[in-house]
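Reading a protein record of the kind used here takes only a little practice. The record below shows the convention in full.

——
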Amino acid sequence: MFSRSRRPLFRSTTLRLTGLYSLIFIASSVTLFLLAYSLLSRAVREGDRVAMTQKLREYVSVSQKKGLSGLLDFLHLERENIDTEQYLLRVDAPDGTPLIDLAPDETPHLPGTLPIAPGQSVQWFFLPDPAEEGSLNEVACRTLPGGGAVYLGKDASEREELLARFRVIFAGIMVPVALIGLAAGFVLARRVLTPIKDLIDTVRAIDTGRMDARVPEVGVDDELSELARLFNAMLDKIRTLITGMREALDNVAHDLRTPATRTLAAVEVAAATKNDPEELREALLDCAEETRRMVSMLGILMDISEAETGAMRLHLGPVDMAVLVADAVELYEYAAEAKQVSLLGQANGPLPVVADADRMRQVLANLLDNAVKYTPQGGQVTIAATQVPGGVAVRVADTGEGMLADEIPRIFDRLYRADKSRSKRGLGLGLSLVRAVLFAHGVTIEVQSTLGRGSAFTFTLPAPAPSGQPGPDGRA
């Protein structure tokens, strides 16, 4: 594993994610507690308040029917027959004078001055018991229809103590909950960011020259693992491209060395024989030929690069492939006759396709050039164009030397030439240009070859769209 970078903890993403996760976790816990406390306190208080509210309604009803004196008689009767000692009870006259004031044993009566004035609806308030520390009474009050007010209270110490104990327990629980949240957040953040840190370490290793460094892939199939796989695939692709560039540079150096050496030799010969105009002219022609060969190689390399990068400008339009095939056969007919190779063209037109006519001529010329070059005397080269669904298939086949299976994937590489073809004159760029031009057209080429029996190259060009519909180039 590569050495990890030393980054201050307060600046790390791990700390920020830990803090965020912990904040969410603790806030969620507090919210759940407040919700639970609210429901618990409401449930605990609701029973007492319902009973006290019913009592107040009963007293208000009696006062409304029998007046204030009737309410007092009812209260005295209730006290004699029903256990009402658990309540604090006081009834005031309209002028505020207490008419009846009851309290359980050893419990102080309600004070004369209370924090809330009674109203038409039930009012609630808490009243500490001065005689006993920690004691708390809950009091409900309401005005009476005929004037005056009624107060009803009950000891709420145990109930409120239970709720206070619940708050204390929660406060004690929140400390380990917060610690657990921090620990879980840290572990989660480290686990989530591990692929990112591995990615950073891999980039640092590559920056130091270790081109074989890769991001470790874990077994979990998630987005970060997919990122690691894609990054490794990208590194493999870059390494392949760099290897190809190195091989291309080696091949360019190898192939340019010969014409450069010949040009230098011609110049030196011309310098040594500067008195003979004919030899000077011949030396200049040799220099021009070798220079033309080098310029041709560089031009083809530029075309290939433009096509592979999508910068090649194509003049797409309707083209009759039968005409292009006939032109290509006519162009290479004399070269085939000179080598005593039979060249056959099979294309019954019209065979309309959408393509760049000049670039397609390059493709056919390079394929025929290779086929004629590597077909021995008495062999046969065939170029055929046939209508297929959606377009026209072009096939260039020969009965030449053929290729090994492991050579086929490399024949389209720039400047690649098999060992047996090194003796033949050529740049090693023809098939690379063919593939690049077809790639610019959005077309792929297929190769079938058997050693000693020949090769066949096949590609399919799209047909023009019906009238009024856009074609592959976006034109109708």
Q: What stands out?
A: Residues 184 and 204 are 29 Å apart (CA to CA). The chain has a mean pLDDT of 79. Helices lie at 13-81, 157-207, 223-272, 277-309, 321-338, 357-373, 430-440. The chain has three domains: 1-216, 223-309, 317-462.
